[in-house]
Design a protein that fits this description.
Helix content: over 70%
Radius of gyration: 22 Å
Protein name: Sodium:solute symporter
Largest sheet: none
Order of helices and strands: HHHHHHHHHHHHHHHHHHH
Number of helices: 19
Membrane topology: Multi-pass membrane protein
Keywords: Membrane, Transmembrane, Transmembrane helix, Transport
Main location: membrane
Shape: globular
Pfam families: SSF
Low-confidence stretches: 344-349, 473-484
Number of strands: 0
Length: 484
């Protein structure tokens, strides 16, 4: 394992070095939080694919393939569909808004009264998303070093917190680009073909497994529908995803770069399912489907390759973890803390220090929460249920329906979020009903309250349209130098 250890250590050291480099570059709030809004197509596509394909998509995607066969691809597939929908239909408009958070978008659209409540919901989502990624370090470091769970979480989490705190979005962008390359080589180019060959090829896999393993809809229609509702719609509105859209150099970059990243996600989804199916042939009696990834890597890959593929798993976890962490800190500082204090710091350098401090604070909170929790799936389900149930309707309503009002948006956030929490307590965290009924109640309240209240002020809507068109006068002087 010495060679494998060396690969991992070099990889982790490289992540920290990029954090140091990013610190020297991030000298303003824009540079620190959204990489100066100047990523070109290559870096934008790679980093967007990196953040959406995390530990759940890699380790969890292979586990679903082990459990259900090719239809196990649906969870990651719906993530790709969501990213494609965001890129094609919304990302250009989002990029032109030149804001930092989803709540700032809601304030622009509804007249400045939706920020704190929506910020709290978004903060809870990004916190739980960061926690689930951090928990996944325990699985990977256990395979690598037979390490204690708590120590593994502290080690992996500390590295991510360190480079994220140092350089903000610039560090995260650079590390994500490396992580995208490592994932592509490790999972798609190495693990996928080796797993299929070790299982005897597709003909042997078909001979060894039940026919439902090769049914595209074998996982079940209701499960697929729930994945679409949670992950496809979740991709449209998450702060972690929007904050990457804000890094695009232009609306064209956001649209086409995101389309490339979404297409990559579809291929990654199928690869994970095939690897899991091959693992089922090789290890038919694993204790848990989520052990499939680690087992096939540990037992079937040659020295050196094994280290690279485990680095790919680390890359998947780190990219999602760092993206969720900076999103969580951005929301906590800009949407909650600044508003509760009643003022926003104006000095650019002070704002960098403030956001850096919040990343550190939120990072410690994430690591502590990850140590206390055990169930990744439950934590991720809570995160997406809150996001979709509470914020989907007011966000998409604001983008698509001009009659929506601030009162309708606030009511939708409150009712949808509370309904989801109450229904999770009643039906169970993993039940489908909370997100179904939470979303329906949010939609009903949004429409009803909006129609019963005074339309949004014409001046607010006019300013909103100017922002959407990229014509707001305060944006005219913002520099957008090229950066690939």
């Amino acid at each position: 394992m010495a060679v494998d250890y060396a690969v991992i250590v070099v990889y982790l050291a490289g992540m920290l070095a990029m954090g140091w480099w990013g610190m020297r570059r991030a000298k303003s709030k824009s540079e620190f939080l959204v990489a100066g809004r100047r990523l070109g197509p290559t870096m934008y596509s790679g980093t967007m694919a990196a953040i959406v394909l995390g530990g759940a998509s890699t380790i969890g995607g292979v586990g679903l393939g082990y459990q259900y066969g090719l239809s196990g691809a649906w969870m990651v597939f719906t993530i790709g569909l969501g990213l494609l929908a965001l890129s094609v239909f919304f990302s250009a408009r989002i990029a032109r808004l030149k804001v930092y958070t989803v709540s700032e978008m809601l304030d622009l659209r509804y007249g400045g009264r939706a920020g704190v409540i929506s910020g709290v919901v978004m903060w809870a989502y990004t916190l739980m998303l960061a926690v689930t990624s951090t928990i996944a370090y325990a699985t990977i470091f256990d395979v690598l070093f037979d390490m204690n769970r708590t120590v593994a979480i502290i080690l992996g989490g500390s590295i991510v917190v360190a480079y994220s705190t140092l350089g903000g979005m610039w560090s995260i962008t650079l590390t994500d680009m490396v992580q995208f390359v490592v994932k592509t080589v490790g999972v798609l180019l190495l693990l996928l073909p080796i797993a299929v060959v070790k299982a005897g090829g597709f003909s042997e896999m078909k001979a060894q497994l039940p026919t439902e393993y090769f049914d595209p809809l074998g996982i079940g229609g209701e499960t697929i529908f729930t994945y679409v509702l949670i992950y496809t719609f979740g991709m449209l509105i998450g702060q972690d995803i929007w904050q990457r859209v804000f890094t695009a150099r232009s609306d064209t970059t956001a649209k086409w770069g995101g389309t490339v990243a979404g297409t990559y996600c579809l291929a990654y989804a199928l690869a994970g399912a095939v690897i899991g199916t091959a693992a089922k042939v090789l290890y038919p009696k694993l204790g848990s489907p989520d052990d499939a990834f680690a087992t096939i890597v540990k037992d079937e890959l040659p020295v050196g390759v094994r280290g690279l593929v485990l680095a790919a798993a680390l890359a998947a976890v780190m990219s999602t973890s760092s993206g969720a962490l900076i999103a969580c800190a951005t929301v906590a500082n800009n949407d909650i803390w600044s508003r509760l204090r009643g003022r926003i710091t104006t000095g650019e350098r002070d704002e960098v220090q403030g956001n850096r401090a919040f990343i550190l604070i939120m990072g410690v909170a994430v690591i502590g929460t990850a140590i206390a929790l055990n169930n990744v799936v439950e934590a991720l389900t809570v995160a997406y249920n809150l996001l979709v149930g509470g914020l989907l309707v007011p966000i998409l309503g604001g983008l698509l329906w001009k009659r929506g009002t601030a009162q309708g948006a606030l009511a939708a956030v409150a009712v949808g979020g509370l309904a989801v929490i109450a229904l999770m307590a009643t039906y169970g965290i993993l039940a489908n009903e909370p997100v179904y009924y939470g979303l329906l109640s949010s939609l009903a309240v949004y429409i009803a309250v909006s129609l019963m209240t005074k339309p949004t002020d014409a001046a607010v809507l006019a300013a909103w349209r100017e922002r959407l068109a990229g014509r707001a006068p305060e944006l005219a002087s913002e520099p957008v130098p090229a950066h690939q």
